[in-house]
Amino acid sequence: MPSLVWTEWRHLPLAEEISPKLLQEQLDGGQSFRWQGLPDDIWRGVLGSCLIEVRAARGGLDWRGWEKQVDAGRMLRSYFDAEGKQALAVDQLPWRSDKVLASAIKNFSGLRILRHDPHETLIGFLCSSNKRIIQIKLMVATLARTMGEHIVDDYYAMPTWARLARATDAELKACALGYRAAFIRGTAQRLEARPHWVDEMQKLSTTELLVELQKLPGVGPKVASCVALFGFGRLESFPVDTWVVQALASAYQLKRWKPEQLAEFGKTHFGASAGLAQQYLFASARAGLLSVATDVKPRTLKRKSKKSPKRRG
DNA sequence: ACCCAGGTTGTCA
DNA sequence: TGACAACATGGG
To answer: Which residue is nearest to nucleotide C8 (CA to C1')?
Structure first.
């Protein structure tokens, strides 16, 4: 069995500086579920079949990989948008006329959308419903360890759809997926018969892409939006999750708006870079940094009901 | 014991 | 269409 020997640390220049705090938000803030934090602000993760460590450094990132792998550097340049293409996209957001957005951008200045692998993104967000990020990370890690190709030590690639399609009930059960196991299996059975689905879907318009993704079991509007944004790099895609619902309700006075309506609001208000706006709002909301206009705290409004089941009518 | 979690699906009216 | 509960599992 090969042993884990790291390459020397190398430098990856980025168009913009990145701080340790920002790196943490990007790698562990719900875009990817594959990174683990180590001491000294180092992050270790598996991308595709590459095992990688990164840390913030002046002018960009320092990184190293398992010595027996190649091409990781090229992938990282894309992954972190080394050319800085997203800077323009951020500038195109309506922050000049939107103080809430301006504040959110300032909170996490330099935050970018990772260019993640569509396949891995889909698996991750198929696991995401009704789960915290930490739990999603655990499910994804277990899927890899159970059915993914071994890389080195305790590191594994994500399983292929073909492998997932023929996973036994026991294997899926061991991954603690709960009811999401049927999502994974169902989608796997569809996609194993469609090996070029990424290339095919990349050709679609974003609207068409969202429709196509939602034909897969376990993929609704929110998961599709995340896959389009993080996996296919569609910066206009605007995922509406519980945090965004709360953020828009409080900071934008959009109480009682349904997710579908909020998605439409995001699309029209934030425009071609709506996904980036979403990520700033999401991060700010999670950090408790959004100016909550007086009220709106749904959880405090909920009172426990009596023992009889709730009815409405 | 109870509530909630980067939602989706099935099932009622 | 549109609202709502069920869905498995783990942590606070």
So the answer is: A178
Closest CA to A122 of A28, A239, A216, A50: A216
Whole-model pTM over 0.85? yes
- Provide the CATH number for the domain around residue A212: 1.10.340.30
Closest nucleotide relative to residue A135's CA, C1' based: C10
Q: What is the pLDDT of residues A217-263, one digit of tens each?
A: 999 999 999 999 999 999 999 999 999 999 999 999 999 999 999 99
Domain residues for A131? 118-231
User: Of A95, A61, A93, which is closest to residue A79 (Cα–Cα)?
Assistant: A61
Structural domain total, chain A: 3
Q: Quick one: pLDDT at residue A295?
A: 39
Pairwise CA distance, residues A188 & A280, whole Å: 32
- Inter-residue contact A193 to A165 (CB < 8 Å): no
The pairing of strands A60-65 and A35-38 is unpaired
Same domain, A199 and A95: no
Kindly report which amino acid residue has its CA closest to the C1' atom of nucleotide B4. A130
Q: Which bases along strand B come within 7 Å of a protein CB atom?
A: 2-9
Main-chain phi, psi angles of A95, to 5 degrees? -70, -20
**Which nucleotide is the nearest neighbour of A175, by CA and C1'?**
C9
Q: How far is the CA of A105 from the C1' of C3 (A)?
A: 35
Mean pLDDT for A198-209 is 98
